[in-house]
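Amino Acid Chain and Its Fold in Token Form
===========================================
Scope: a single protein chain, as residues and as a discrete description of its fold.
Amino acid sequence: labelled as such and written in the usual single-letter residue code.
Position: the record begins directly beneath this header, with no further notes in between.
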Amino acid sequence: MTTTSAPNPATPRTSRRIITISLVIIAAIIAAFFVFAALYTDFLWFDQLQFANVLTTQWLATAVMFVVGFLAMAVPLFIVIQLAYRLRPVYVRLSSQLDRYQEVIEPLRRLAMWGMPIFFGLFAGFAAAGNWETVWLWFNGGATGEVDPQFGMDTGFYLFAMPFYSILLAFVSAVILLSLIVTALVSYLYGSVRIGQGELRISKPARIQLAVLAGLYLLVQAASLWLDRYKTLVTEEDRITGAAYTSVNATIPGMAILAILAALVAILFFVTAVIGRWRFPLVATGLLIVASLVVGIGYPWVVETFQVKPNQNSFQAEFYQRNIDGTKDAYDIADLEVTPFKAETTAEAGQLRNDAETTASIRILDPSIISPTVQQLEQFRNYYQFQETLDVDRYNIDGEMQDTVVAVRELNVDKLGDSNSWNNRTAVYTHGYGLVAAAGNQRTSEGEPVFLERGIPSSGFLTEGEEYEPRVYFGENSPLYSIVGAPEGTDPVEIDYPRGKDGANETKNTFDGDGGPSVGNTLNKLLYALKFQEAEILFSDLVNDESQILYDRDPISRVQKVAPYLELDSDPYPSVVDGRVVWIVDGYTTSSTYPYSTSVSLSDAIADSNTAAPNFAIDDINYIRNSVKATVDAYDGSVTLYAWDDEDPILKAWQKVYPATVEPISEMSADLMSHVRYPTDLFKVQREILGVYHVDTAGSFAQQDNRWQTPNDPRNDNQLQPPYYLSMQMPGQDSPRFSMFSTFIPASSQGTTSRNVLMGYLAVDSDAGATAGEKADGYGQLRMLEIDADTTVPGPGQVQNTFDSDTTIADKLNVLTLGKSEVKYGNLLTLPVGGGLLYVQPVYVQSSEGTQLPLLQKVLVTFGDSIAFEDTLTAALDVIFGGDSGASGGDEEVEPVDPGDGTNPPDEGTTDPDEGTTPPPADADARETALAAAQQALTDRDAALKSGDLTAFAEADKRLTAAITDLLALESAE
């Protein structure tokens, strides 16, 4: 009879181990799936945009550099540890202290011998992976054809090679230094290096290993010192960036000497590895340290103190000139046209006749103020919104270019209220609708914008032309994500706009473009449910076989992802191009290593009263080009990159890294060309540089008595005044061009306030023309008017102070603020017309409580010492220039609301057949009547707004305007 023993039950320890291993495996699988979900959804997004090669290039380059960095650190460390351990002396007598160390270390020796290389290798791998762009740029960068004035090296060396060599030498230096430290540690622990009885004993294998590593380290330091010679051209010295007299005559030769000495000391260490004598390399190392103090620090100090400082301007003149030339090339301001300008300050009749085209285009509509007005008049539903600051564009209307203020009606799902369910915000309320455009130089009698395109559904000059797609699925304030699309024949569910045919409340639509990755299969539903942490994506019936998910919808985010090498302009703007709303985004290539070019902080240069200081990965730059114009289709989100500056060497290198991602400029349509403009942020950077570098000679630069700065915003003394777009004709131009301008005042001395008088006026031609694939002649041309020193032209701050302190203007402003109203000042524009400089500022009136609706009521104008404050720009110009300026302001057809149009009838006056009706008497009763009418109209207007009755609001607002006009008439009569 055969018997078998029963199996032993698993012990509790074995069960716990199995459970632990199982949990670890499950956790690893879950983590891996989340990583897969993130990577795969990223790939789907890029692939849908046809930019998958951008993502795969990043993945491949990061992986390659991680492996290279890991192996380059781990392998040498592993080798030196193995050599130091295997070549240890076997029979040497160790101290009791070392015996105890070995007893502790021996059980962990294998782990340490493998673990240390892996540990440091991981850090090195991540560091190398983070620098893959520098390596790829070096590999793909080329010559620029320009050489530096000191070494005669092509500037491409500084843009591409020098940053690569810097990180390479730093990495190799770290590897060798760690290898040296680890070798010394292992050799000491295992007796190859012994310290005792007043002497140091090193075994032959350890001596060879340590000496070779020390020699290699010094060779790398020699190479670093040699490279540092070139870095002096991008290092600050004296007042400039770049090598000045001290560096050229002391620092650079000193670095060359030290590099040679370091190489000789390295050779002595290699000799020591053979002959075993440490005295020579150690003594040489000490001498090298002394030499570095004398040659690297002492001698440059002597030259700077006893030669340069007593003769600074003459000794530094050559190097100041190098800095001037290098900075102008790096910021593309070398072709600046400078015109001496002796400004007229006396106004005479007919003086603006030759500038009639410019004055007719003056933009009195301020994009940063009228957003609430546009919001109230064009919102229609609470779930629509407009940007706080609108944009400036221009359109060809009836054969003439018209400056416009534009805004996109975007969606705001936060205003859905009780309707803000997942279904509604994801699949029903999916897009905004239409672009609103108003004439920049016109207003209605009530002070509202004159709309050229408006309404739902859209109507205006855009709608009347070619087929127009008004739907906005991709914008600056789009929802986090939307799910759109449905099989053909399915009833639409997306709200198109809140109006329908035959009395319907709304019109619905189904997205039929290619705007996002498909979520028509279970896997993609699951992945996106994980990505957005919302299970409804997986289970909702609204997600069908034809569904697409739209996300990352902000135009800047989309362009940044497909072109990660670009710095993007902070102000993308919408235009209608070839019948479609598109966002136009300017992209810049930048560098911080252009020789002899002064650095500028991007965030400081860009920040002003309209733009908060942005955050940049690399803030300090000394080279910039507007190399790319990008468009983002507002309907399907498609991104197109155009090589705007195809001569830019940095863009050329990136095109090799990411091939076939940037279209040539020849692919830009004529309509698109007519809407691109000179970018705002580039202009701000250039004006920052030109505050110092508007001079051409080293003598002027050295004297530092002609430095300028951008004035602060007259209404925000803590922020710079922004540049403004408008159509104007600069001296030397034959016709008005769409331009951008800024002004300069003297730079403030330390601890003092600068004089607020104009020193310079900078404008740039921003019109790229309307020829497909071809820039217009003159586009990007910078023009500077240097104001004659003998003529005092007030700056923006001084002009604003004049406006505020004028008693006549103050009395009229007091009338405008009666009741619950307040005054808002628009952008203060400066224009070179009539041989001088004309200031124009629109004045708005809005309620100080409740819903605020800024309405343009007055225009402030000054020229020289003359000031006018009138209902229209045309009238103000005529007042300034002797009753007839010889030009119009574009708003000559606007007639102020007649007092008789209000609810309060005008007082009767006497009538004379020859002189017409006399003005109403300015007595107390009439004033009280007008005040009562204004108060009642204001109350009625607020009530209409609260009830949402726009018709009643408009009627009450008209009465309020009429009442204020009555008060102004009474004030004038007195």
